[in-house]
């Protein structure tokens, strides 16, 4: 009667479902943080590239602006020189007219002034040549200024196009994050449903074994059920129970859609005391035991890509006390259905 009462009490244990919900929430939060970090990383890399291009464009604009300022200064100097030459030309023309008027007063004076007028005419021709060269330089500078303006306009267009692409990239990243969140939520819900189903099947299969416990979302086998002390070879008595688990896994694999990436994780744990014999450390002993369970399940038809073996040595204890009861609880094999 006491045993029946204990079984009925165990059948209404809601703690695994509560822990299952908490673990699901934690997985969702971790994934959201991962997606957020990836989006931030991609956005940061995209923005860094855009900032580099923008800096190059700004440097080119500053260089062109300086060149434009220099050209404008040279143009102003040429214009000033042209104005001066025109003023000199006007003065020479006035003086020539005056000399022509004076030449009418006498032949002698006309001859002497004629020589002077010839010299002034030569100077006038020279000044005209200088003025023509100055005008040519002004035209060239105007052409260069027009070309610089076209380059600045092209740079502004390129900058606007870059900013537009940056906005489009940010919108795409935001849309990708939203779609990933939706897909993740759907996959988590589906995996949770199958995990709950598998959890219920294992509870039915292992309900009569007092040496198998449920801890959160995991089934815990005491190491003595499966292995001899300090050994990693499975006991013959444990194989029928593992056969039942293998059958449940094979049936579950047929039901879970192939796009859900799930695994059965087998974790090996030891107590704090050092190993003796064939295993140099508790790491090697815990890992060897987990591998032994995985290899046996593979022999029974479970797909190897759906299994994962891990060893934790003595560093994940259930009980931190240092007595035989605590040592016995900490020596264990845990089974957990999870994402890969």
TrEMBL record:
Q: Which residues cross the membrane?
A: 21-43
A Pfam family the protein falls into: OmpA
The record's section on PROSITE patterns has:
OMPA_2 (PS51123)
Domain OmpA-like: start-end pairs = 215-340
For this protein, the record's InterPro entries field holds: Bact_OuterMem_StrucFunc, OmpA-like, OmpA-like_sf
Q: Tell me which GO cellular component terms the UniProt record holds.
A: membrane
Q: What is this protein called?
A: Chemotaxis protein MotB
Species of provenance: Hansschlegelia beijingensis
């Amino acid at each position: 009667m006491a045993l029946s009462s204990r079984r009925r009490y165990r059948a209404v244990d809601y703690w695994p479902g509560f822990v299952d919900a908490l673990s699901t929430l934690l997985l969702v939060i971790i994934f959201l943080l991962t997606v957020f970090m990836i989006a931030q990383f991609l956005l940061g890399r995209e923005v860094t590239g855009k900032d580099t291009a923008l800096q190059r464009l700004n440097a080119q604009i500053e260089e062109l602006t300086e060149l434009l300022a220099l050209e404008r200064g040279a143009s102003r100097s040429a214009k000033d020189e042209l104005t001066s030459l025109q003023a000199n030309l006007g003065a020479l023309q006035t003086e020539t007219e005056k000399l022509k008027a004076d030449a009418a007063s006498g032949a002698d004076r006309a001859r002497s002034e004629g020589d002077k007028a010839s010299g002034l005419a030569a100077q006038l021709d020279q000044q005209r040549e200088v003025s023509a060269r100055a005008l040519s330089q002004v035209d060239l500078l105007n052409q260069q200024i027009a070309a610089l303006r076209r380059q600045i306009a092209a740079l502004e267009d390129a900058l606007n196009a870059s900013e537009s692409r940056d906005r489009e990239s940010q919108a795409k990243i935001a849309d990708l994050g939203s779609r990933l969140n939706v897909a993740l939520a759907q996959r988590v819900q589906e995996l949770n449903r199958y995990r709950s189903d598998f959890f219920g099947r294992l509870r039915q299969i292992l309900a009569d074994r007092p040496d198998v416990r449920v801890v959160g979302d995991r089934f815990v086998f005491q190491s003595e059920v499966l292995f001899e002390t300090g050994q990693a070879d499975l006991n013959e008595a444990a194989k029928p129970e593992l056969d039942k688990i293998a059958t449940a896994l094979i049936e579950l694999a047929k039901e879970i859609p192939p796009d859900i990436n799930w695994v059965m994780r087998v974790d090996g744990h030891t107590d704090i005391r050092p190993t003796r014999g064939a295993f140099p450390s508790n790491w090697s002993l815990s890992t060897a035991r987990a591998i032994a369970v995985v290899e046996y399940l593979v022999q029974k038809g479970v797909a190897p890509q759906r299994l994962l073996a891990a060893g934790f040595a003595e560093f994940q204890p259930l009980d931190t006390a240092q007595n035989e009861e605590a040592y016995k609880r900490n020596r264990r094999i845990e089974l957990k259905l999870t994402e890969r």
